[in-house]
Amino acid sequence: MHQGTSPAIRPAAHLMTLAVIAFATVCGAAQFWRTDLNPIAVPLSIYLTGPGGAYVRMTYYLMGVALIFFAVGSYRATAAPLRSGLALVLFTVPGLLLPVVAATELFKGTPYESLCALIHGLAAQCTFLTLSFGMLLLSSRWRRDLRLRAGRHLGAPLAWLATAVLWLQAFVHTLPHGLMQKLLIALILLWLAWAARQLLRAARQRYAGI
Q: What is the pLDDT of residues 25-46, one digit of tens each?
């Protein structure tokens, strides 16, 4: 069987491309239509409610589904000796958590607000952590994959830069939270777009590896 013919790879790439475009477009536009918010100071989660919040939540749900497909597609696209079950988990977990991050914001002003705020915070942090580690791990595996190493000079630096921004945000509290979080999200989106392109490249190539 040819690895490049796996039915999971091409749909995962197309879905992730769609999710990245939708997320970047809607969440980017929200920075302008929410004139009541300071985009430098407030994190993206604030945009999940209020005017246009439903559109932002939809992109979270779409990205969650795309990450689960991507987890499977990237596993199948990787050469068998380099496949990582841990990487599969590290992209599946944020796929499951992103809808939770979005939905918990809907409980503001209810008796469950405090509990949902706690769940929201934990889910968001876990999403960022698992994505950063997953990006680093998959980038390192793809650097050694004959079909996927062509773009290695972009993927690994993006993953390391996103991880650096994540930890900088965590330890340097004087930096504007909204700006740093959105920079981190932008780097993650760039990496996911790069990875989706890698999957499409893998889907076009055929060689025996399974």
A: 999 999 999 999 999 999 999 9
